């Protein structure tokens, strides 16, 4: 279908981690203006659009694989200490939108077992609980995420500046096409999301015992 002139230029990433019996299963994708750019299946992340040269992408691909292996090992370790006899599904939805009038909007939302869990307020770099009621798990995760620059100020800068800046460079509304690679944006989103998921391992610890 033709793109509406009023529709925003959008970059989004969806990522899901399923933890069951100490094992982690990863899946997700990234898209630029509705076109699939990256795909995550298990421990493999694939560059669908040729946004990076093969040698550079091979290094990035290995970085992602190494992180996922590390995350998986941590979950196995925590599962032995505090077994959880049910499945946990942690999801991330993040990205930014650039509108034809020049305004922009960034977002980061997390779900736990398909229920709204946390969201990141970009303007003041704070995490907000979305989990219904006063749940200790959500409170624990919120406190942990607020402790580190990588999950507050750095994430704010990435979503509010880097993400939108690259969309502006690629926007057809400017009348220009930039040759700048999407790679810093795409990889920043992927690795940033995984870093937050790593922090959220505490969710499983908290769920399996006392926070």
From TrEMBL:
A GO molecular function held by the record: signaling receptor activity
InterPro entries: Endothetial_C_recpt, MHC_I-like_Ag-recog_sf, MHC_I/II-like_Ag-recog
GO biological process, one term: negative regulation of coagulation
Keyword Glycosyltransferase included in the entry's annotation: no
Transmembrane segment boundaries: 185-205
Annotated GO CC locations: extracellular space
UniProt keyword annotations, A-Z: Glycoprotein, Membrane, Transmembrane, Transmembrane helix
Record has Membrane as a keyword: yes
Top-level taxon: Eukaryota
Name used for this protein in its record: EPCR protein
Gene: Procr
């Amino acid at each position: 279908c033709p793109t509406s002139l009023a529709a925003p230029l959008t970059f989004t990433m969806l990522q899901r981690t399923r933890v069951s019996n100490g094992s982690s299963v990863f899946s997700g994708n990234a898209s630029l203006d509705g076109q699939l750019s990256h795909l995550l299946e298990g421990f493999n992340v694939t560059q669908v659009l040729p946004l990076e040269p093969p040698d550079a992408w091979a290094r990035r691909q290995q970085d992602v694989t190494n992180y996922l292996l590390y995350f998986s090992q941590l979950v196995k370790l925590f599962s032995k200490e505090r077994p959880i006899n049910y499945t946990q599904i942690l999801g991330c939805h993040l990205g930014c939108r650039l509108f034809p009038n020049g305004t922009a909007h960034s977002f980061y939302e997390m779900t736990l077992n398909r229920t709204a869990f946390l969201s990141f307020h970009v303007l003041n770099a704070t995490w907000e609980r979305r989990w219904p009621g006063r749940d200790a798990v959500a409170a624990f995760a919120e406190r942990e995420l607020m402790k580190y620059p990588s999950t507050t100020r750095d994430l704010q800068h990435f979503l509010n500046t880097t993400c939108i800046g690259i969309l502006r460079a690629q926007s057809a509304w400017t009348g220009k096409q930039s040759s700048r690679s999407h790679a810093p944006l795409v990889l920043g989103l992927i690795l940033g999301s995984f870093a937050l998921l790593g922090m959220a391992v505490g969710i499983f610890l908290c769920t399996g015992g006392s926070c």
